[in-house]
Amino acid sequence: MISRSQGLKAWLFQRLSAIYIAIFIIIAGLQFVVRPPQSFEQWHGWITSPVMMIATAIFFWAVLIHAWVGLRDVIIDYVNAFAIRFVLLVLLGLTLAGLGVWVARILLTGAP
Amino acid sequence: MRFSIYRYNPETDKAPYMQDVELTEIRPDMMLLDALRELKKNDETLSFRFSCGEGVCGSDALNINGRNGLSCITPLSSLAEPIQVRPLPGMPVIRDLVVDLTQFYKHYRSIEPYLIVHDPVPEEEFLQTPEQREKLDGLYECILCGACSTACPSFWWNPELFRGPAALLQSYRFLADSRDQATADRLQALEGPYRLFRCHTIMNCAEVCPKGLNPTRAIGEIKKLLLKHII
Lengths: 112, 231
Prior knowledge:
The complex is a heterodimer of chains A (about 110) and B (about 230).
Chain A: H1 7-34, H2 40-47, H3 50-78, H4 82-109
Chain B: E1 2-7, E2 17-22, H1 32-42, E3 61-64, E4 67-70, E5 83-86, E6 93-95, E7 98-99, H2 102-110, H3 130-134, H4 153-157, H5 164-175, H6 183-190, H7 204-208, H8 215-230
Parallel strand pairs in B: 1-5
Antiparallel strand pairs in B: 1-2, 3-4, 3-5, 6-7
């Protein structure tokens, strides 16, 4: 996913993604509080508007990046045996990539 | 006063053990090091390091009641009984309270703890403004006792790769020095997920430093410098 995100890049992405995730959750949450959708169609129209689509896509991308950096840190810290560490990192990468594909599918086609 | 002291002689002991000992003659101004020296009079096999005895040399860092500190400046009166004395955590024990700090010094050496100047060196002396000199306060005072690095969980987890708070504080001491000209090389040498970025601001280092220094802050400053460097 972000194979070159060693050191500084990983650290920076972790922080930038955290800021974006926080802002997105606050704005999307406020939207539901201030102007709650009255019907499925209304909600669907809101979530499929181009701005919301792009913002949601970036949100999930940020969540995946954030999860990658955070869980990678946990694995690097706690799993010392190289082979197990490598396998876990590959599994984590594949899982997150799979989730990314799934999110993209939902956002692009509307199918679960 | 009761003590529980970590004992291990690899030549005779199969495993380390805690030895309970008592010291009856306690003076009110006694430091832990004084007590250890009294105990050594009764049992000369008890091994520990010390030199200056006044918190300057950094030889006698120990784990005292679970917290790293210098035995020579730790008053007995500040400690709860039985006083548990152990070697610095995570380091190979040579004997009793003496640990092998080879790894620690290897990291220190790797950050090139000296001024690197590419321009011709001035004939007489390097001049610094008081403001430039001030930037070294809180950095140059480090005595390399190892209390911070051996209290750092990130250092316990990746001792071969993570430089540790002491070496990183020293690294920033030279990065912050107006006379040093190797900033880019120094920063480059700290890149990657291990050397610098294993620090998760746990702050055990700042908590235990017997000189009151703050390696976590220095590490944060290095991250800022790295960021400035790529922008």
